Amino acid sequence: MKRWLRFHQAMNKKRWFEPDREKNGPITLFDFSTELDAVDAALVEQNSNNRSVWRTTDDSIIGGYSSAKMQLVRTSEDLKRIINGQESIPPHLWDQNRTTDQKSNEIKNDSIDGIQHDNGERGDGREHCDTENDFLPFVRWKGTIDTRVNKEKKVHRSGFCSILSPEFPMAGVDLDGRYNGLEIMCRSDGRPYSLNLKVESFIEDDLFQCFINIPPTNTPGSKVCQATGGKFDQVVFLFQHFAATAGGRLRARQRKLDNAVKIQSIGITLMDGVDGDFEFDLSRIRAVNYDENGVIGEAD
């Protein structure tokens, strides 16, 4: 409910105080530099029905062999711990383990370079290696896809992992037709992830999907800042490019997803049919207006 209220307070300001009310500037849905979203991410649950926090799921629910975990990386100290195979610092110890780079909770948007694209291409971003204050909190989702099918189960295919955001209450957050797409700030290993939107719909099992199909953020052999993990990509997906799916398959009769959407939750899935390890970092998700000149307006 706090997240829902935060969104609508920001939306009301945009309705009444921005000069061009039809082209509002970006509005945040999830940002792990804020304490509210960071706590939810730190309390991530596996295969859970608790829809108030971040969740992970995989094909083990159908007897499969894929597995993955999601970890909050709030500071450079967290990053070092995770690289060394340790767990990040839990929320109840945050105040006791404050470090300089935890000032990143008040990151300014102008500290991030990058050009947004509506087709899954990415802009050129700089590596954030200048100072500890350049650290961007994020969640690291990594694991292994295994496409073997459990012959004891009545399934014909396997091999997927997903992360799911907390659900917004009150049937979702209403974009009121004021935005034409979503922007995600991420680091990808180049595998084709799907971005999934659960929106208010008269068909209960509707899920709208668009693929995050971009080259690896940090190419093999490139220099990556060990303190921050390297640069992030900012990628925009227009609502008109999302396809209607059900049960992981495209619907025979497609319906366009227009800008007047009410978002209930957001997820990311890897189900590319390729065995092997994967790694995906997510820092922020915003609703944006995008045209040929890029993202329109100032951030909330």
Summarize the structure.
This protein has 300 residues and is mainly beta. It has helices at 2-17, 35-42, 76-83; strands at 27-31, 45-46, 55-58, 67-73, 138-145, 161-164, 173-174, 181-187, 193-199, 207-212, 233-238, 243-246, 249-250, 262-270, 276-288, 290-291, 294-295. It has one domain: Sandwich (Jelly Rolls), CATH 2.60.120.
List the uncertain runs. Answer: 99-128
CATH architecture label: Sandwich
Strand content: 25-35%
Shape: globular
Name the CATH class.
Answer: Mainly Beta
Q: Strand tally, please?
A: 17
- Could you please say which CATH topology applies here? Jelly Rolls
**Which structural category fits the helices and strands?**
mainly beta
Biggest pleated sheet = 9 strands, mixed
Query: How much helix, percentage-wise, in residues?
Result: 10-25%
For the record, give the distance between the C-alpha atoms at the N and C termini, rounded to a whole number.
19 Å
Verbal overview:
The protein starts with a helix and ends in a 5-residue tail after the last strand. The chain is mostly beta strands. The protein is globular. The strands form three sheets. Strands 2, 3, 6, 7, 9, 10, 12, 13 and 14 form a nine-stranded mixed sheet that branches. Strands 1, 4, 5, 8, 11 and 15 form a six-stranded antiparallel sheet that branches. Strands 16-17 form a two-stranded antiparallel ribbon. The protein contains three helices and 17 strands. It has one domain: Galactose-binding lectin (Jelly Rolls). One of its GO terms (biological process) is mitochondrial electron transport, NADH to ubiquinone. One of its GO terms (molecular function) is unfolded protein binding. InterPro entries: NADH-UbQ_OxRdtase-assoc_prot30, NDUFAF1. It comes from Pseudo-nitzschia multistriata. This is NADH:ubiquinone oxidoreductase intermediate-associated protein 30 domain-containing protein.
